[in-house]
Amino acid sequence: MSISYPRDFMSIVDDIKKMRIRGAGRIARAAIKALKLVSESFEGDDREEFIEYIKSASKILLNTRPTAVSLPNALRYVLFRLLEEYRSGGSLEALKETVNKSVNSFVKLSKNALKKIGEYGARLIDDGDVILTHCNSAAVLSIIIKAKADSKNISVYATETRPRFQGRKTIKVLNKYGVRTTLIVDSAVGYFMNKINKVFVGADAILANGALINKIGTFSIAIIANEFNVPLYVAAETYKYSPDSLFGVKAKIEERSPTEVISPSFLSRLNYVKVRNPAFDITSPRYITAIISEVGIYHPSVFPRVAEKIFKFRYSELYPWE
Ligand code: RI2
């Protein structure tokens, strides 16, 4: 039986898939707001049917961007609470209200987390620091903007971040706040690293061993920073922790279309050429100085334990959408 979903739900799914909505934190908030639309659109009167409807919509959302664990974690946050209400015999109205309340509370906690990360991270920035950023991370920008608000005299080198050029979003925000910024091509990081005091990057996932999954190019930046003895900090909310990495579940590295890298017409003339376009890479914890979360600054080896305490993952029900 084919299930239909509200049009506004499908347009958010498309926006996330096509990166009109992007950034791990934003993706998470958009996904569960879309789930709320599905809940509100349900016209049946059967509780079980409602639960199945929400679960199937969750699976569609999960397939939009496979790497940012903030999306499944946001769904876990809502579905844990929904299934608890269902099992306690809650009425259909109570189930809908639970979705509504848990979506709103996740959005609120995730926005508050950005503010707290800004406060903790800004303490690591000294007056006169030259900072390197990569891609476009709301968590990293929160730190830099807070440091600027604290009247620290800082400047930033921002990579353009091919192939989707998210660095251009970063320089627009920094410009709005009056932060002196230099835009560089990704391959110039080694050339400028001797001018950098600190590197700040965001996170799409933090694994059980403290490894970082982030925008492609982060691993190379980490190696170069290490070569120049420049500390690399990761700005990551606790809901960026990947609970199933504890069981050795392999992280999914999203591979996007070659058309993001080169035009199909150009490629069509090259019979022996193919394009690879991984959107993320993995950085070993040994290259990470510390992870800045909404509950403090931690060594990468400690962050997973802290994240588990804050998020209270239910390992017995890690895939509530099944
Ligand atoms: P915030 C982004 O991925 C970048 O990898 C960025 O570092 C990460 O999400 C975290 O972003 P994409 O959506 O949650 O641009 O800090 O593929 O905003």
Can you give me a brief rundown of this structure?
It is built from eleven helices and ten strands. The radius of gyration is 21 Å and the shape is globular.
Give the distance, in angstroms, between the N- and C-terminal Cα atoms.
18 Å
Helix content: 40-55%
Tally of DSSP β-strands: 10
Bound small molecules, which ones?
A: 1,5-di-O-phosphono-alpha-D-ribofuranose
Count of helix runs: 11
- Mean pLDDT over the residues: 97
Global morphology:
globular
Largest sheet: 7 strands, mixed
Class by SSE composition: alpha/beta
Description:
The chain has helices at about 5-15, 25-40, 45-60, 70-85, 90-120, 140-150, 165-175, 190, 220-225, 265-270, 305-310, and strands at about 130-135, 155-160, 180-185, 200, 205, 210-215, 230-235, 280-285, 290-295, 295-300. The protein has about 325 residues and is an alpha/beta fold. β1 (about 130-135), α6 and β2 (about 155-160) form a beta-alpha-beta unit. α2 packs antiparallel against α3 (about 45-60), α4 (about 70-85) packs antiparallel against α5 (about 90-120) and α5 crosses α6. The longest helix is centred in the N-terminal third of the chain and has 31 residues, at about 90-120. The model has no long low-confidence stretch (mean pLDDT about 95). The site of 1,5-di-O-phosphono-alpha-D-ribofuranose has 16 residues, from α2, α6 and β6. 1,5-di-O-phosphono-alpha-D-ribofuranose (RI2) binds near residues 24, 135 and 138.
Question: Secondary-structure map with pairings?
Answer:
Layout: H1 7-17, H2 24-41, H3 47-62, H4 70-87, H5 92-122, E1 130-133, H6 138-149, E2 155-159, H7 167-176, E3 180-184, H8 189-192, E4 198-201, E5 205-206, E6 212-215, H9 218-227, E7 232-235, H10 264-268, E8 280-283, E9 290-293, E10 296-298, H11 303-311
Parallel strand pairs: 1-2, 1-4, 2-3, 4-7, 7-9
Antiparallel strand pairs: 5-6, 6-8, 9-10
1,5-di-O-phosphono-alpha-D-ribofuranose is lined by residues 22-25, 135, 137-139, 166, 201-204, 214-215, 279.
